[in-house]
Amino acid sequence: MKKNLLLIIMLMMTIGLFAQNWAPINTTERFCYSNDGDLEILDNVLWVDSTKQMSDHEVYYFNKIVSPCDTCSEPNYMLANQPQFLLDQAKVYENGEWVFESYNQQFKLLPNAQLNEEWIFDEESSVTAVVSSLDLINVIGEEDSVKIISLSNNESFVLTKNHGVLQFSNYQLLGIEGRELGVLVPKFEDMFSQFEVGDVLCYYTYSAEAYKNVEFKHNYLRYEVTNIENHIDSLIFEAEFYRKYTEFEYGKFDKITYGDTVLVFYPNEYTESYPNELLEIEFEDLCISQIDYHKWGGLTKTNTSILLDNGFELTDYLQDDNVPELLIPYTGLEYTKSEYSIDFGFMEREIHGFEWDYNNEITGYLHNGDTLGEIFPVDMFVGHQELSFSNKFLVYPSPAKESIKVQTQETGEFNYKVFNISGQQVLNGKEEKSSEDLEIDISNLQNGVYILQFEMEQQLIQKKFVKQN
Questions:
Q1: pTM for the full model?
Q2: Assigned domain for 453 exists
Q3: What mean pLDDT is predicted for residues 71-93?
Q4: Cβ of 247: how many Cβ atoms within 10 Å?
Q5: How crowded is residue 229: how many other Cβ atoms within 10 Å of its Cβ?
Q6: Domain endpoint, select from 317, 351, 380
Q7: Which of 61, 118, 123 is nearest to 92 (CA)?
Q8: Cα→Cα distances 251→215, 245, 290, Å
Q9: 366 and 401 part of one domain
C-alpha cells in the first residue's frame, strides 16, 4: 500500500511538472540570448514591446533590431527594424496555440503538447514537430522542466516551463532581465564597477584644426581617484588631476594644469542601450547603431598599450531616402565613433570633420598595483618645485556656507573661476592678493561639489570644495 501511495505521489509530481503554462515568452521580462554558441557573449535581447487583444487571441509584438544586409551590393550596409528569431509577432490563442509570424514566414508552436504529440510546425516548408523528450534540468542556476521539440528538418526547439525558450536554431538563453538571472545587458553603474579609491586613469587626446592654422594639439591627462559617490542619476569621481597640454602653432609650447577635479558620468542612450539596437541622436538623418557582437569586457593587459574587448561600439549611419530600413555607413567628411566598456566605462571617442579631427582614448589604468596599458608618471606633468607650489594653496572651509577662503603665502593678482560638477562656469573674478587670506563669496551657489580654478605665476591650479547650507 505504501509503495502504491508513493508511486501515485511521484506520478502527480510528474504531471505537475509537465502540465500547463509552458509560455515561450512573457510580456513583463526581457530575454537575453547568444546566437553563436558562446555562452558568455550576449548577442540578442528579445521582449514583447506591445500587445493587442483580438476576439479569439492576443497578439504579442516583439522588439526589432539592426541586422547586416545580406542582399546588399555594398559591404557593411545594415537593415533597421528587423525581426529576431521569434519573428515579428506571436498570436496567442485561448487553446494554448502560439503562431509566430513575419511578412514571409510563419511557424506554429504547441507549448502544452504532451510527449510524442505531433503537429505541423512550418506549413510552407512542410516541417513537422514532435515532443521527443521531457526532463528536469538546471537552467541558469534553477531547476526547471524542459521539453525538447524535434523538427523534421533535424533542428530542435527547446522549451522550459519557467524560463521560456531555452534554445532554437543557434540561439541559447543566457539570462532574464526582470529576475536578474544569468548574463544580462550591463547597466550604467556596471560600466564603472571596477573603479576604487586610489585607482589611476590616464587618457590621451589628439586634435587638429586646419581652419585655425593649428597643426595639432596633444592632451595628456592623469586622474587619481580620491572619492567615489554613486547617485541614482550620476556617478561622481573626485580625483587629483594632472594635464599637460601641448600645442603646435608657430612653434611648440606646453601648458600644465593640476589640482583637484571632479568627473561626472551620467547615464545616456549609449550606456543604457541593447545589442543591435538602433539609436537616433539629435542630428538630422543620423543614426547610431549598436552592432558590436563581441563579449562585454574590459581591458587586455599589454606592455605598452591596451586592447579593447568591446562592451559596445557606436557608429554613424545614414538612412536611405528610398528605403527607410537601409542604413548606410557614414563615410563623409564628418562622422563620430564611440566605444564603451563594462568595468572601465568610456574608452574612446573619434570625431572627424571637414578641416578638423578629434580623438580621445584611455591609455592606461592602475588598480591594486596592477597596470593595464600605459600610465603617465606625475613627473611627466610637473617637477618637484611646481608640485610644492600647488601645495602652498589651501581652500577652506569645506563644506562652506557663505564663503570660502584661499590660504597662501603668495601675493599678487588672483584670477579665479568656479565650475560646477557639470563643467559649467558659475563664478569668476579678479582680486589682488595681499598677506590676508583671500575670501570668495559663494552664498548664491546651490549646494553641491565645485571646483575653484585660479592662475598665479603662469600656473593653473584647481581645488575642490563643497557648498552646503
A1: 0.70
A2: yes
A3: 90
A4: 17
A5: 13
A6: 380
A7: 61
A8: 10, 14, 42
A9: no
